[in-house]
Amino acid sequence: MTVTRSSDTTHLRRNGGLRGTSRRGDTSSAIPRSLVLAAGWSWRLLVVGVAAYAAARVLALLWLVVVPLVAALLLAALLRPVAGLLHRRLPGPLSALLTLLLAAVVLVGLGYVIGVRFAQELPSLIQQLVGTIHQLREAVGGKGVGRLQLDQIEASVVDWLQRNRSQAIGYLTAGAGYFLDFAAMVVLTLFITFFMLYDGKRIWRWLLSPLSPRDSRRVDRAGQAAWASITGYVRGTAVIATIHGIVIGLSLYLLGVPLALPLGVLVFLGSFIPFVGVLVTGGLSLLVTFSTHGWLVALIVLGILLAESQLEAHLLQPLIVGRYVRLHPLAVGLSFAVGTVLAGIVGAIIAVPTAAVIHQALPALRGPHRDHRTRPRYGDGER
Fold first, then answer.
1. Minimal CA–CA distance to 362: which of 205, 161, 212, 218?
2. 337 and 246 in contact (C-beta within 8 Å)?
3. Which terminal Cβ of the chain has fewer Cβ within 10 Å, N or C?
4. 122-126, 142-146, 191-195: which has the highest mean pLDDT?
5. Contact predicate 116/271, CB 8 Å
6. 3-state DSSP call for residue 287?
């Protein structure tokens, strides 16, 4: 009977049935269960936080490798259709190499259009901006508060432009001087991209090979979902960026604004950075328009920018990107903010696709098999 009573007591004590009774002064059974659960979650969250911090520190130390790897993933997702098209006529290595060469030619051409043209036109733009401010000041007339503010604006703008004109031209034309700082990253990015385009399917199978068959199938599902999300985001963003660049460039050209082509290219490139990219490049287009054609034409350009932003938000994004990247706008904004704080411009570019990958991969990793036949797979276009 004593043993039975002891067993019952132990059973009750383990299930929280005997509160306030303890053995040899042990008061753990008197602790509320909610506090025990909170303490358990707290130390587990602390361990996860420390592990995340350690991983972030390691990634920061290896940024010369991490950044090219992420850039190669995005670049491979963008270039895979071209590589697949060339692979129909050419061997795998040659098609991948030719794809990279074509991409390099396009990037060099865009850099030339932007840098050289801006360097040539910048002094003239400065003079036109000063003249526009003079005209606006004369239109205000008198010596009231409006004219005084315009005088102050003119003095500050002219002073800054005169002091920094040579520096601005130098920054635009001396980009090659920084090539050595990024040479290793560029070479590594191209190296990784080449093998992703040429042998991506085999690389993925090699990564799955150490896993058990069950885990391999789960990770493969998650990988397919993640790759579908990356390709959908990158290609959809490229389509939207192309539309932005063409609309803005063509509008500036029809309005007679100088540097219409470089500004259109800048809008295209800026569209790959959520929120800030179009804002900055669109603001630059407005500044050039105001400098050369005054405030009335600048208002027309502003209207085009606003209309295009609404078109993107309500039609282009849901139709083109939303099929693959189902993220709430709040999640996009927070991801962009976190990426910018952690890694600057690089973090701003990769934050949203990273969030999309996590959002798509985790359910695929946990849930049952889904049909991904309607989505682009990593091995599409490979031999």
1. 218
2. no
3. N
4. 191-195
5. no
6. helix
